[in-house]
Amino acid sequence: RQWCPTGTANESDLIILGFLPPRTNTTSNSSNGTTSASPADISAAKFEFSDEVGLPISGLILDYARGGFYYDIPIRSTTPEDAQEKLAALQRVGFIDDISTRFVEVSFYVYNPALDLFLANRHFFEVPIGGTWKPLYRHVPFSVFTPSVGVTRLVFEFIFVVVVVGFIVMFVWEGVQEAKSKRLISFLVNGWNLIEMTNLTMFVITFVLRWVWMAHSAGIPLGTLLQTTTHSNKLTETEYFYDLQGIFTAVNTVLTFLKLLKYVRLNSRLNILTRTLSVTMRSLLGVLVLFVWAVLGFAITAHSLYGNNIFQFSTIGYSYISLLRMAMGEGDYNALSQEQRAATLFFYWSYQILCQFILLNFLVAVISAGFASVSAMQSSVPLDKSILKVFQDAKYEVLPKTLRQKLLLLRHRRTQSGIIKETVEILMDKRKAMVEEDEAERDDYDSIEDVTMNKDDLVGLVPESVKEFVNSAFVDEIWKDLAWEHHHLLLGAKGQDTIHKEHVISEEVGKALRPLVLAMPAVDKIRMSLEQQFAQLEPFAASILGSREGGDLNNDGNNTPPPQ
User: Fold this and answer.
1) What is the pTM of this model?
2) CA distances from 145 to 123, 229, 252 (A)
3) What is residue 370's predicted lDDT score, i.e. its pLDDT?
């Protein structure tokens, strides 16, 4: 495909050279654009324009739309020598030249029957302003949907669609509830909700592309396509929509895994990333804006200095990408110095010092400071206790009384999470009412940080409309979770260093007392032995003492001791 700035090639600015499946009739036919297979007849060919061939392509310089002039070379009935002669003849008649041609595409399809897979082979040749040819290529494997894919796969896709529709309904329902509370704007601009909305939108687009791909596949006669020489444009369209759904699926996979970070915030060990980003968000955005602005200025400068001779700086966009790669250590100083020796010395080192040494290290410093502050406030919950807490929570969720309560709430269009959310909102409103208005606007609640709350207060915060659905077991479970979180929050407030020191002291005291603890069984054994001996000697001692008292009485009051 080529771009013709002079308006040549029958007043069209696009030309397509296609290696497509052969046609049965290779005689000259100006109505459908086919020509004779003989190179001698190509000089008399009239290349018809069609907007149904090819695909939109992004070159290194420009983007090229679908359609253009094309010529078919039957690869099944043509030897390599004949193909080269046809290409030479096309060049002689001006289909391809060295003046107006800017983009040429050579494409063909192959089919693997063992894998039931097509492969689109597309080779591009683009001419930038400098005049050289830039070769590009792209190989796209794709399949054609047939009813033989299996019932299991179709059932799985149907279940997946139903699950996504369920998530969409839940998201819309949450948005409606927030709109009723006049918080729709804050709901939509929330970062996690933006990721959720983008994720669901991408799912919908992917499903639509997949259904369109299935519809185009239904119009392809696979039984006769491989046996005929007629090229079907539906095969190109099927490739296009199959490739598009693959791109959207890849992007959506990243969004889905990012969305999982929303749920790891509930774990104090796994939420370290999200907490660090939330703490450093404002400083991080400021440094990023400065970095982007500085690199943009250097990109414009690089395009002015090297854009005429170095392709990586031929446009401002390419210059920006090249400078980002240079910040990662991929710059070629010698290539730049050959073009502008004196200017490169100033440009290269000023960019390295400002953008790489200063701004990039600022980003690292901001993230490191945020990570340090979050780590200092994080309580070190032992792993065994965390795992035990998870199993206890899971056990509570599957108890018969818990399941009965959930079913009761669902029957009245309520959920436990919704009740907790409403209770928290009432608690937040009560907290705002306890401070001055300006303090509430600043989220400054230091004046009431010593105010405590008991379980009766929690019960009083439950909305009146749902109190009939809340039993004591549910309140007890929520209160235990609050106590758990409060306890480890206090540990975190003490600081990680303090907790570590206490842990070290406890270990050292344990080491010092360990020999005594280990000796306790022997001490207990000696004590038991002494008690047994005492029990045996006690009657004998008592008899001796009794005989002494009797001897004293027989001496008529004399204090003479009895004979030994």
Assistant:
1) 0.65
2) 26, 21, 22
3) 86
